[in-house]
Every structure is written in structure tokens, then in C-alpha cells.
Design goal:
This protein is mainly alpha-helical and 737 residues long. It folds into 2 domains: 507 residues, no CATH class; 202 residues, Up-down Bundle (Methane Monooxygenase Hydroxylase, Chain G, domain 1). It starts with a helix and ends with a helix. The model has no long low-confidence stretch (mean pLDDT 81).
């Protein structure tokens, strides 16, 4: 079989996979406003987005200019070289986007594609020029430098513009509406909803439908010619309908958010979907030229790809179907959405990102600037402004039951993002939808005072991390694609096979790890929800603590067995397990504010007992970590194993500990009362045995019978086991006095 045909098949398979990983990341662009405001159920939001995707594929122009000729000049390359450029691009894109999805960070698929084409084009263009005896540093011969720089400039300049636009418009909008929508919506809801819907419709028509294969060019020209009149008519019509809805007790902003979701998803499918399938379709076109030419693939130049080509509608519909299935069933898209919604949400709670020096510096600088501005603003103006931004009493009382942000902010997010994208398109400036939507969302959240004193440094750290990841995307995409392309240039078909297996292995491993991570997070969320909603919070707390004590005890017992049998691999696995348990405790600790706030029952007793028990369990796990880490380091460094007498005594001690911990876990999980005197006697026996073994081992060390490393390990294991034993008894006393 023709190996070039197999490469085209490979590219089509990669395009399908790229659609999945790309849509999982880009879904954040059109879903987050609806998800953050809870404009409808999750299923309804997906139905609206799916309808937009279907229409977007029908109205898609399907132009592949960026993939075919936007970054490099195809006339410089032979069919043979061009196909390997596309393979390098697609492999890099699939791996890179999957990594970002796993991390839950939104990135730009446009940036990744452009820099991958740039990197692969530079690598193979450079090597081709060397082979032909040309100057390889004359990049203008094979790279469209001007258009590439224009694309890059348009993409990254949108970051600051989007943030400032979102901040200013949201500040003015909140100043008008305040947080008491029940009072202000009837006065301003109609005109604001009409303006928002009109701007979104402008984006839908003049960005989403522009260049459609189903729209006649004359009709598009007529719409463009009468654009201002049509927008005025839409503004009047939408405003009137929205005002009538307000008088009937209907919030029109809810439907503005859903309409904006539909518009953005439609425009995405109509314009950005081709980013994922463009290289594969360009390869199909190139293969068609090669098959009909009968020429040597290394001699056939690809100048014919300069011509415009429209993607077959059937392929676009299949691509749209893959996109819809990804929206409904891909869990990674929800993780990416959670990152942005968490950064933009109103109110306190757990924060995903840790503060760093840069975030603290930026927060401190802005705070000082705010104080300087506040010092020259009259107190009366400041008090009036503060009153307009004050949260409603309902929002304060029911903060956890509220959506991440309200319909006003959701509408502004969609309105500003749609307007900026439509305006940039009318000027012929390419930009990243991800950058615009994310930065508008961050600007509106800052203006809405969602970044308070308790959360600002964390939110800034999150924004800095995401923006940093965007820059990293460009660097990694360029570098990885260039390396892959060079490898393919020399290794050809064998290299393509090796890289495909490599990419498949990374994605499979990533998916398995992500599934395990999501299961752990879901279990944690379930535990938190049960604890908050339980009519018997102490029972739920007791069960939660019992489960974690059991896991800690099992780690201690298995670590002792691994030490006796000199099992380094088992010790490493237990080290990872105890780290996951500590991570679970850290995540639970971040949710403790919510747990305390919504805890039912006697607050003076219930949540105090829960906090104390949780603190004891965390200390137990830290002790288990110290035991496992000391043992792992000892075995890894090939130090002398503990002597036989210690191992025998330690095994007997662990047997006592196993029985003791099992009784406590059973008492916590079943609620049955264990005799405190019996448990106290068991605890004292273990501690007494620890002391006896410790005295003997210290004497052996003083007599030179064991080395310093052996003594250090054995002493550490005994001391931490003693602490765990004592802490277990204290937890039992809290719940079963």
C-alpha cells in the first residue's frame, strides 16, 4: 500500500483526536457564562451549544488558509516534505492540548496551531534549503514572516484590550444595576438586554456567518451594506421584547446568556473548527494532486495549495458531530471550565492556585494605587459607589447556594467578547477566542469586586499562571513541532510510526491518570456534600474520619511488611499513596470554611469536634508520611537493613497496632461503643512496647551494634508509630466518649 496514503489516513485519525482534545479545551469559551450563571440546567446548556455547533458547521466557510499557506509558503516544499510537516503539527497539537486539558488550564488552539506550523515549517524549510544548496537563514523564502507576525500580534494584543474592556464595561454596568436586580431590572433591564442581544447578533451575523457556503455573496454584501440600520432595528425590537418580559416577571438576561452561548458556539464551529482538521484536509488535497500527477513525491512542488479550497460539507458535519459528542461526554472539558469559573466566582471558597511572589507584588501594587486614588475621591462619592456594589442580603445569607456570578456579569462577558471578536474580524485582525473570553471574564470579575481581600492574591496568581501557560504554549508548540519535524525529515515513515506510538502512549497514560484523579475528586466532593447536608453531621464526620484512619493504618502496616521484605517498589507505591491522602486532606481543609458555615446541629459542639478530629487525622497522616519517606530513603540509598531483632519486635508491635486500629475504625464506622478502658489499655501496651524496643535499640547503638543510619530509621519508625497510636485514641474519644 502507498505509504503516503497511510500518512493521510494517520492525519485524519489525528484530526479526529485533535477535535476531541481541542474542543475539550475550547468549550470553555462558549459554556462558561451559562454555567457560571446557571442560566439553565447543564443538559439544557449543552443542548443550546450543540444547536449552535450544528448550525455553525452548516454555515462554515471551511477555509484552510492558515494550515495551507498562512504561515509557510507551500510552493517551497515538495509533497513528501509537506506531508511530514502536517504530521509533526498534528502530533504536537494532540499531545499539547491533552496536557492542558489534564491540568484544567484553558489555552488557545489558534496559538498552538500557528506556532506548530511555524516550528515545523522552519525545521523542514531549513533542512530543505540546506539540501538544495540554498541559504537556510533566508526564512522569507519559505516562511510568510509578515502574515505570521500579524497573526501573533493580533492574538497577544487581545489580552490587554479584552481585560480592560471587560473591567470598564462591568464597572459601569454594575454601577447602574447594583446587586439588587429585583429593583433595577425593571428600569434598565429592557434596554440593556436589547443592547446585549443586538451586539451578540451582530457578532453572529457578521462574524459567525461571514463567508458561509450556504449564504449567497450578494446577501452577505447586502447585510454588510445595511448593517447599521439592521442593528438599530434589532436594538429597538429586542429592547421592547425584553421590557415586556420584565413587566411579566421574566428575567430577560437569562435568555441573553443562552443566546450568547448559542452564538459563540456557532461561531466557533463555523470559524475555528477548521483549525483542528485543517492540516489533515490540506494533506488530503495534496495527496489528490500527487495521485493525479504521477510525479515523484520528492519532486512534486505544492504551489497549487495557494488556491482557495472549500471543505466538503459532509466532512464538516462529521467534525461537528465529534465536537458535540465531546461536549456531552468529555470530562476534561468540565475541568477546564471549572478553572475559569473558580477564578471569576463571586465570594470566598477554596482556591486552586497558590500565591507567588509575582501575584503578591501585583496585588500590593494595585492596592496601593487604589488607596492613592481613594485619597483624592470625595468621601460622599466613594460611599455612594460602595453602596452600588454592596452585595444583597440574600447573596450574603445564601452565598453557597448562589451561582458563581449573576446574569448581569454573564451578559457583559458574552456581549464584550462578541463585540471585540466581531470588530477585530471586520478589521482583518486575527485573535484568539480563548484569550478574549478568558480576559474579559477576569476583567469583569475584578470590576465586580469578586477579588476581595481574602481572595485577590489567589485569583491574581491564577490569572498569571494561565497567561504564563499561554506564553509557554507558544514556546512548547514551536519547539516540539520543530523537533518532531526534524526527526520526521530524517526518519521519514519509521519516525512517523515511532512518534505516533509515543503520542498514543502519552494520551492513554494521561487519560488513565485523569480518570483516577477525577474519581478521587468526586469522592471528596461527595464526602463534603454529605457532611454539609447531613441531618446528623457528627455521624457523617465520624464516618469520614474513620475512612481516613483506616487508610493511614493500612499504609503503616504495609510499609512495615515492605521493610521486612526489603521491597523498594512497594515502599515507593506507599509513598505515592500517602501523598495522595495528604493532598485529599489539603483539599478538605480548603473546604473547611464552607463546612463550618453550613454545618447543622449544635455549632458550639458539632463543628468543634469535627475540626479537632480532622486535625488529629491530618497529624496521623503526616506521621505516616514521615515513616514511609524515611524507609524509602533508607532502602533507596542501599543502607544496611534493620537488624533481625528489631524486625521481629517491630513485626509483633505492628500486629498489636493492626488490631488496635481495626477496633477504632470499626467503632467509628459502626457507631458501636468500644470500652474506653480496653482501648486505653491497648494504647498503653503499644506505647509501652515502643518504649521498650526504643530503649533496647538505643543501647545497641551506644554499644556499636547498629549503624547511625539504622538507628535513625528504627527510632523514627517507633516515634511516629507512638504518635499515631495516641492520636487514634484521641479521635475515638471525641466521637465515642
Amino acid at each position: 500500500m502507498d505509504p503516503y496514503f497511510l500518512l493521510v489516513i494517520l492525519l485524519l485519525c489525528l484530526a479526529t483526536l485533535d477535535l476531541i482534545v481541542g474542543v475539550a479545551n475550547d468549550a470553555v469559551n462558549f459554556l462558561n457564562s451559562a454555567l457560571g450563571t446557571r442560566a439553565a440546567s447543564y443538559r439544557t446548556i449543552l443542548v443550546v451549544a450543540s444547536m449552535g455547533v450544528v448550525l455553525g458547521t452548516l454555515f462554515s466557510s471551511g477555509m484552510m488558509e492558515v494550515a495551507r499557506k498562512g504561515v509557510f509558503d507551500p510552493a517551497f516544499f515538495s509533497f513528501h516534505s509537506l506531508l511530514f510537516i502536517f504530521v509533526a503539527v498534528m502530533l504536537t497539537d494532540v499531545i499539547l492540548l491533552d496536557v492542558f486539558n489534564t491540568l484544567g488550564i484553558p489555552t488557545s488552539t489558534t496559538v498552538s496551531l500557528v506556532f506548530e506550523l511555524f516550528g515545523a515549517g522552519v525545521a523542514i524549510g531549513f533542512l530543505t534549503a540546506l539540501e538544495r544548496g540554498l541559504d537556510p537563514f533566508l526564512f522569507s523564502e519559505y516562511i510568510n514572516i509578515s502574515s505570521t507576525l500579524t497573526i501573533i500580534y493580533g492574538i497577544f494584543s487581545s489580552v490587554g484590550i479584552a481585560f480592560i474592556a471587560g473591567l470598564l464595561v462591568q464597572w459601569l454596568t454594575r454601577l447602574v444595576f447594583t446587586n439588587k436586580l429585583e429593583h433595577t431590572l425593571r428600569w434598565f433591564g429592557g434596554i440593556f438586554s436589547g443592547a446585549a442581544a443586538t451586539l451578540i447578533l451582530n457578532f453572529l451575523i457578521f462574524k459567525g456567518l461571514k463567508g458561509s457556503v450556504l449564504f449567497d455573496a450578494d446577501l452577505i454584501n447586502w447585510l454588510t451594506l445595511h448593517q447599521n440600520f439592521l442593528l438599530l432595528a434589532f436594538l429597538v425590537g429586542f429592547s421592547a421584547i425584553a421590557q415586556i418580559a420584565v413587566y411579566r416577571g421574566i428575567n430577560p438576561l437569562k435568555y441573553v446568556v443562552l443566546f450568547g452561548t448559542f452564538a459563540l458556539s456557532m461561531a466557533f464551529a463555523g470559524n475555528d473548527l477548521v483549525n483542528f482538521i485543517g492540516p489533515a484536509l490540506a494533506a488530503m488535497q495534496a495527496y489528490g494532486l500527487y495521485a493525479s500527477s504521477g510525479m515523484d513525491p520528492r519532486e512534486l512542488m505544492m504551489g497549487a495549495l495557494q488556491e482557495e479550497v472549500t471543505t466538503p460539507l459532509s466532512i464538516l458535519l462529521l467534525a461537528g458531530l465529534v465536537m458535540i459528542l465531546t461536549l456531552w461526554f468529555n470530562a476534561k472539558s468540565r475541568k477546564v471550565s471549572e478553572t475559569e469559573i473558580n477564578l471569576a466566582r463571586q465570594g470566598e471558597g477554596s482556591e486552586k492556585f497558590k500565591p507567588n511572589v509575582l501575584s503578591r507584588s501585583i496585588t500590593s501594587l494595585v492596592e496601593n494605587l487604589a488607596k492613592m486614588v481613594g485619597s483624592v475621591v470625595p468621601l460622599s462619592s466613594k460611599a455612594w459607589t460602595d453602596s452600588r456594589f454592596a452585595p444583597s442580603k440574600l447573596a450574603r445569607d445564601q452565598e453557597q447556594a448562589q451561582p458563581a456570578f449573576d446574569f448581569v456579569r454573564g451578559s457583559v462577558n458574552l456581549m464584550i467578547a462578541s463585540t471585540l471578536i466581531a470588530y477585530a474580524t471586520s478589521l482583518g485582525l486575527p485573535l484568539s477566542t480563548t484569550f478574549v473570553v478568558f480576559m474579559v471574564g477576569m476583567g469583569t470579575s475584578l470590576a465586580d469586586r469578586a477579588w476581595g481581600q481574602e481572595s485577590a492574591v489567589y485569583r491574581v496568581a491564577g490569572v498569571v499562571s494561565v497567561i504564563g501557560s499561554w506564553l509557554l504554549t507558544a514556546v512548547i508548540a514551536f519547539t516540539a513541532s520543530m523537533i518532531f519535524a526534524a526527526f520526521l525529515y530524517y526518519g521519514e515513515f519509521i519516525a512517523a510510526l515511532v512518534l505516533t506510538v509515543f503520542a498514543a502512549g502519552l494520551i492513554i497514560r494521561s487519560s488513565m491518570g485523569f480518570s483516577k484523579q477525577m474519581r478521587a475528586e468526586n469522592l471528596l466532593e461527595d464526602a463534603v456534600e454529605k457532611l454539609i447536608k447531613s441531618e446528623e453531621p457528627i455521624v457523617s464526620s465520624r464516618l469520614l474520619m474513620g475512612s481516613d484512619i483506616e487508610r493511614t493504618a493500612n499504609i503503616v502496616v504495609m510499609a512495615a511488611d515492605a521493610l521486612a521484605n526489603n521491597q523498594k517498589r512497594t515502599t515507593r507505591r506507599l509513598g505515592k499513596e500517602v501523598v495522595l491522602l495528604l493532598k485529599r486532606h489539603k483539599q478538605l481543609e480548603l473546604r473547611m470554611v464552607r463546612i463550618i458555615r453550613d454545618f447543622k446541629g449544635e455549632r458550639s459542639a458539632s463543628y468543634r469536634e469535627h475540626l479537632l478530629a480532622f486535625d488529629f487525622v491530618c497529624d496521623m497522616t503526616e506521621s505516616a508520611r514521615a515513616m514511609v519517606e524515611s524507609q524509602q530513603e533508607h532502602l533507596a540509598n542501599l543502607h544496611a537493613r534493620p537488624n533481625g531483632s528489631f524486625l521481629l519486635s517491630y513485626a509483633d508491635l505492628i500486629a498489636l497496632f493492626s488490631l488496635y486500629s481495626g477496633r477504632i475504625v470499626l467503632a467509628l464506622e459502626s457507631g458501636r461503643t468500644e470500652s474506653n478502658s480496653d482501648l486505653l489499655a491497648a494504647k498503653r501496651r503499644i506505647i509501652s512496647e515502643v518504649q521498650r524496643i526504643l530503649d533496647r535499640e538505643l543501647m545497641a547503638y551506644r554499644n556499636g551494634e547498629i549503624s547511625t543510619r539504622q538507628s535513625h530509621l528504627q527510632t523514627r519508625l517507633l516515634m511516629e508509630l507512638r504518635d499515631i497510636t495516641a492520636l487514634m485514641h484521641r479521635v475515638h474519644q471525641l466521637y465515642v466518649p
